[in-house]
Amino acid sequence: MLKESEYGKIIILNGTPRSGKSSIALSIQNTFKGVWMNLGVDQFMQMTPNRFQPGIGLRPGGERPDLEPLVNTMYQAMYEAIAAFSRLGINVVVDVGHHEGYSVPLRILHRCSKILEGFPVLFVGVRCPIEVVMERRMNTWNVGYNNDGTVPRPIDLWQQLVHVPGIYDIEVDTSLHRPEECAQFIRQRLEDNSPAKAFEFIRNMES
Asked: Does 42 participate in catalysis according to the annotation?
């Protein structure tokens, strides 16, 4: 049985869509020492049959209560897979958008933190102002504000809910720093050897 120090490292990048998580994950894969597998939401959505989409990528707002039990199970499966890779000494980077904006409380992040109890997890908050998120959406999909100039409700909900409870080991802001710089900040945090306690705090939060 591996000692905890021999487990693969786990970096979980949490933020809204278009906040820059995928670019940071790619930089980590390309520049960090060792093998880093990406087991994020995009990869799981690609494996999900069309009739169950968006699956694990279900946005806040309680729009699809019929999918919520499956989403809960999919998150469990994703974190069990993360644990399996880490147990084999393989590093894992995960880009995800945790929220509790479902039709009923699912407490997914809390449940997932329990799956990774005893694992070396660095929980990273990926911040990005909504104005920058909207600009990136327009540049990527040519879809932006409502006709009256307001932010569409799902995007606004993402911005409000993705960083609740907001407990992280480190936070980065992709409006201020390039993905490569954010990855470097994360590398420095990994190398400073101070304990990563965010998941422990989340795991111990009262129901």
From this structure: yes
Q: Residues 98-157: pLDDT tens digits? A: 999 999 999 999 999 999 999 999 999 999 999 999 999 889 888 889 888 899 999 999
What six digits make up the tokens of 53?
């989409």
- pTM of the full predicted structure? 0.94
Please give, one letter per residue, the 3-state secondary structure of the chain: CCCHHHCCCEEEEECCCCCCHHHHHHHHHHHCCCCEEECCHHHHHHHCCHHHCCHHHCCCCCCCCCCHHHHHHHHHHHHHHHHHHHHCCCEEEEEECCCCCCCCCCCHHHHHHHHCCCCCEEEEEEECCHHHHHHHHHHHHCCCCCCCCCCCHHHHHHHHHCCCCCCCCEEEECCCCCHHHHHHHHHHHHHCCCCCCHHHHHHCCCC
Which residues are known binding-site members for ATP?
A: 15-22
CATH code for 4-193?
A: 3.40.50.300
Boundaries of every domain in the chain: 4-193
Annotated active-site residue in 42, 156, 173, 192? 42
Percent share of the chain, pLDDT over 90? 87
- Pick out the residues of the known binding site: 15-22
Torsions phi, psi of 147, nearest 5?
-60, -30
